[in-house]
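Case study.
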Amino acid sequence: MAKGYIQREDIDFTNTYSPVAKSTTIHMILVVVVIKDWYLEQLDVDNAFLHGASMKKFIWRFPLKSSMQNQASQQWYEKLTSYILTIGFIQSLVDSSLFIKKTKNSFVALLLYVDVDDIILVGDNINEIISVNKSLNSVLKIKDLRKLKYFLDLEIAGTKKGIHIFQKKYALETLEDTKMLGAKRAATPMQKKS
Amino acid sequence: MFDQEVDVHDPSSFRRVIGRLWYLVNTRCDVCFAVQFVNQFIQRPTIHHHHHVVEHILQYIKVAPAQDLSYSRKSDLHIKACSDSDWASCSITRHSTTRFCIFLGESLVSWKNKKQSTVSRLSSKAKYRVLTSMSCELQWLPFLLKDLDTIISNMTCLYCDSQYAKHIALNNNFYERSKHIDIDCHVVRERLQQIFFTFSLFAL
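After joint prediction, the assembly is written out as follows.
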């Protein structure tokens, strides 16, 4: 489950059916993207539309009955998955959130997580990415296509030499949450045995 | 063991912080061990033993909140995996710790730092356990790379600091003394025979 830390059992979920965000997959994709100098784009899906797609007027963020919530996001996920498969993508066997479309002169991979409003597209051919964006736009309301910078609380910054992934915003939020922003610093993650 | 200690007055917020820290491990392998350590006590955290550990982790994060993972453009596509174990490191249960990290070229892509689920009487057994869980992780990475239209340039290289573990993996004979690690042996050896990876020893 992506961002599992904000969920509470019985309120946010009763059973987990949706694909788990494997951090290794994300890391591997980023490494390959950097080495091969691929495009790394993010589709910003309009939130209200996204969750209203399968139910009438359904506002996701409100604490409704968990089964309804489950159903809605599951329905949405299944609908989108089947659409992605019809436009030429194949679901990866090693990670079910990864979809691949390979043609003679282009390669596009798509990362899709339930409960997350972004879709990640990577590939070697920008025209192909744009055309995937267009066909997704016919079923989803996509705000725009832009360079990937922030995804699943990971910040991604590109430089000439490569890319950096960090969670500065998230770390600072955690410190703020715990009122530790003003605390003294420690040189090591754990104290020595005393 | 910690019964006489004072409980944390709000365990649910304590758990929430741990949950947040777990997510931070996505880019911070340096706090991985500390977080997994304190994560064992979420059922009934005490102020002295656990709350202070969490505070210490947060103080450490405060030093460099933007610590990053860097992926270089000029890296090759060669999977390297390093393993280590800390025998009987848990002072309460005497379980050992599994540690490994996997690199794709120069880039760190996967790591684990976790207490093993059973006690090992021999340090070599603990080491071998690490090899097993690492080889399981290593097995699916080439498939993922293949899905990403990428071919690895060299065979996966596995680094291990135990001569004994290496001998068990490479040697086809079983001895009575190594019978207890039968299953783990087969897991690693099978993959070695399928030429999933090669073995290297750290300079000791």
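Observations recorded in class. The helical segments of chain A are 23-36, 47-52, 66-86, 126-137, 168-177. Residues 4 and 162 of chain A are 29 Å apart (CA to CA). We will return to this complex in the next lecture.
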